[in-house]
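INFO batch 0412 | record 1 of 1 | parsing
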Amino acid sequence: MTIKDYYSAAELADLKLPSLPATRENVYRRATREAWPHKDVAGFGGRGGVRREFEVPAYVRAEIIAKQGMTPEESLKVLDNYLARTDTKTPLSEQKVIRISDGKAVEEPRTWAICSGAVQMFAKMYKVSMNSQQEHDVTEAAYRFMLARKRMGKTAELEDLADVIKKTMVA
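INFO prediction complete | emitting tokens
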């Protein structure tokens, strides 16, 4: 399976991702409730020959990428390229994303979302178990690294970010 920009609820349910419900109907409900961006596509599977396909959040995309059997570095590049493509006018470090936390919409910097998705992906790939506080600490270390690079006028290379995440996870 290739990494796509949009997925139907049935495709997402078939992937059996740990963060998503198991049925098409419940995936559709969650995507609607969390207001995932979507498009209507002509084809089989929907009412009147039109089905809805969703652009999945970073944490779901990270799980899809992890299922592909890529190396962590390849996976991080795919995730970063996808996130950078979604808003080309605003610098990546200033972009905001909305996520749902404990049933509430939370706005956070897109850079934080990239770091968070990367930390979750690396934890799964290296089979590292972390509680939410440890995950937050590792994400914060990666985020601070990216901000420090920006202040120095340098871009944060993905390989460097991967090294920061790996070192912080094992510390």
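INFO post-check: Residues 7-54 form one domain.
INFO record closed
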